[in-house]
Amino acid sequence: MAGNGRSPGASVASRVLALLGAFDGEHRSMTLTVLAKRADLPLATAFRLVNELVEWGALTRRTTGEYVVGRRLWDLGLLSPVQSGLRQVASPFLHDLYGATLATVHLAVRDGTSALYVDRLAGHVSVPVVSDVGSRLPLYATGVGKVLLAHAPDDVRAWVFTNLNRITPYTITQPGRLRAELRRVLRDGFAQTSEEMSLGACSVAVPIRVAGGPVVAALGMVVPSLGRSRPRLVAALQVAAQGIGRSLPLGESD
User: Fold this and answer.
1) Helices 175-188 and 154-161 meet at what angle, rounded to 10?
2) Which CATH superfamily is 78-247 part of?
3) 12-70 CATH choice from 3.40.1000.10, 3.40.50.2300, 3.40.50.1980, 1.10.10.10
4) 37, 100, 112, 207: which has the fewest Cβ within 10 Å?
């Protein structure tokens, strides 16, 4: 059924999805006016649909008048194979890594041209970490992202190579340098970053495969510096990644 928004042919479902899609890592809380603008909907249409989403539990209205994602969407998200399968299987391995290193540990999958963080354990050492569960970060500036990018289809890599934005002074923005780095990832079996996403934070990551098949996820750590500890961290990550891969059922990457 079509509504009466700016796009005459847009269905009610597409408008609801536009409202939900307006939320991202930088827009976790929005007024109705901002939400309508980001969803490209008339204010009256957004008001009506947002009220229905609040009633259903997909959105929550704060006392300040801003809207945030509601608990019911979170509950639905937990039913996703990424959450219920990969995250559940990987959880004990992440806790083992955290216990052995006290470092921040990440589990991520590729979502289009971004790294989607599906689990995270915060380390004891104070390190600037911008990721959180559910956040999406650039593939080219994170350890887990470089692993996923190295194993991504050609069209994904081509898009990334033409959209390299500087995040810190150390972010790799030259396509040639990034291509060389990805070749090293494939050759050595791990990726690393040095203050490329956050100043004062370095990372190292390895791929997770199911039964020797394609890469389905990446496992990484964030530490203040790598130095001589890199071989030890890589070895610990690889053991955990192999354990996760062996524990995942075939088809879990679907």
Assistant:
1) 140
2) GAF domain (3.30.450.40)
3) 1.10.10.10
4) 112
Within 13 A of 145's CA, how many CA atoms are on the CB side?
27
Q: What is the full DSSP assignment across the chain?
A: -B-SSSSTT-BHHHHHHHHHHT-BTTBSSB-HHHHHHHHT--HHHHHHHHHHHHHHTSEEE-TTS-EEE-HHHHHHHTTSHIIIIIIHHHHHHHHHHHHHH-SEEEEEEEETTEEEEEEEE--SS-------TT-EEEGGGSHHHHHHHHTS-HHHHHHHHT----SSTT----HHHHHHHHHHHHHHS-EEEESSSSTT-EEEEEEEESTT-SEEEEEEEEES--GGGHHHHHHHHHHHHHHHHHHSPTTTT-
**What's the CA gap between 243 and 222, in Å, rounded?**
20
Q: What is the pTM of this model?
A: 0.70
Q: pLDDT tens per residue, the chain (254 residues)?
A: 334 445 555 688 999 999 998 987 678 889 999 999 999 999 999 999 999 999 998 899 988 999 988 878 766 765 665 555 788 889 999 999 988 888 889 999 998 899 988 888 887 665 656 666 777 899 999 999 999 999 999 999 999 999 999 999 999 999 999 999 999 999 999 999 999 998 988 999 999 998 768 899 999 999 888 888 899 999 999 999 999 998 887 654 44
